Amino acid sequence: MLKKTWGMLAMVGLLAMLLLAGCSSSQGAKETANKPTEDSKTQEEKLKLIEEGTLSFASSGLYKPFNFKKDGQLTGFDVEIGNEIAKRMGLKPKPVTNPWETIIQGLKGNKYDAIIGSMSITPERAAQVDFTDPYYISGAQIFVSESNNTITSKEDLKDKTIGVVQSSTFKDLATKYTSKVKSFPSDVYALQDLPPGRLDAVITDKMVGINAINEQNVKLKTVGELLYEDKIGMAVNKGNTELLNQMNKALADMIQDGTYEKISMKWFNRNILK
């Protein structure tokens, strides 16, 4: 009888242990399932976005045809490229404006996620931000009034009054030829000062000047070849590697499937990455 009683007690104890183990295993499974893992982190956390589900990107909004306002809305080549990149990343695009002279400070201050505003890739800027692969190739071009026959080469710029957009690489270039450099908030404003003779020349992006001639009927002409080739990139904050990689992938996919060229042809009637 005693053996039987001990046997029954042992069996009850074993069953209790199995039951506890099962509960513990079940609870552990639930805890494991609910525990955040690297793979379960949201895309926004990986990308370090300012606003969940949204890619905000900045430009000056004064750089037609790359970024400008039409009927109160930002548009242009840069904006369409940014919109398409956001779409391919599964994010809502949010183009915003910021004064050009403080646009990098705005990025570093987390006012927006990226700069997609025709920014030249330079060592000085690359020390402050991380750049994507170039999304177009341009260059510095000299423009003069259509009636100007005294400036026919870069050598003729000596001691002339040259207009440039403020805080740009064009300003640095102009000072190599003259001390008479006048800064403008927009290249377009500078170009419009050429026909009345308020400026002798303007150094700006070739495509901006061509657009002023074609679309705004400003009486201008180009002088010589490009002063230098410019590689234009999109910028993100230092260390935001995941965002940089995904933007690069979206850009590469756009180029490969022809979407990039379609956008470029719309604005320039040519592929400006070539």
TrEMBL record:
Keyword Signal: yes
Keywords: Signal
GO molecular function, one term: ligand-gated monoatomic ion channel activity
Principal place of residence: other
Domain Solute-binding protein family 3/N-terminal: 54-271
Ionotropic glutamate receptor C-terminal domain ranges (all copies): 54-270
Location relative to the cell: Cell envelope
GO CC aspect terms: cell envelope; membrane
Keyword Signal: yes
Gene3D superfamilies for the chain: Periplasmic binding protein-like II
Signal peptide (UniProt feature, chain positions): 1-29
Coiled coil: none
Entry similarity comment: Belongs to the bacterial solute-binding protein 3 family.
Official protein name in the record: ABC transporter substrate-binding protein
